[in-house]
Amino acid sequence: MRKAKPRPTKRAAGRQSKHHAEKYARGTRSYTMSHIHGKDTAIEVEVRRYLFARGLRFRKNDKRYPGHPDVVLPKWHAMVFVNGCFWHAHEHCARYSLPKSNVEYWSVKLLRNRERDREQHARLAAMGWRVIDVWECELNKQTREEQLARLYGEITGSADMPDELA
Known about the structure:
- This protein has 166 residues and is of the alpha+beta class.
- It is 39% helix and 10% strand.
- It has helices at residues 10-18, 28-34, 42-53, 103-126, 144-156, and strands at 59-60, 71-73, 78-83, 130-135.
């Protein structure tokens, strides 16, 4: 005589229907997120490449200073932070929006990031450094060259643009 398969209870069936399709298999989300690093992002590399090509020499991610600035230019006494709009909660930016799930966690985290940035900038300014922020949204294809030229001028204190943009 064959045994009948047990039928799922209403409770089990309800759990299955509520569960939405995940992008990652169970356990891989944490692994994937652990491999996201805070330095040498594409926009940081782009900014550094531009500055180096124009003859500026710098240190990168210097741990001696609050916030580990992305670019430290000792000759010009300037520091550049290249910020992602989402992670640094860029106000009034289309690239920054609060996630729809786990809103309490994300709002606290992103506001804490923004406040920490302000505190670090104030400490650096008190040490006599000029602090310059470059935002991810400023480096879109339409405005990239103009914004990078502005950054170069802000660092060097020159109103004139590099030769190729003049």
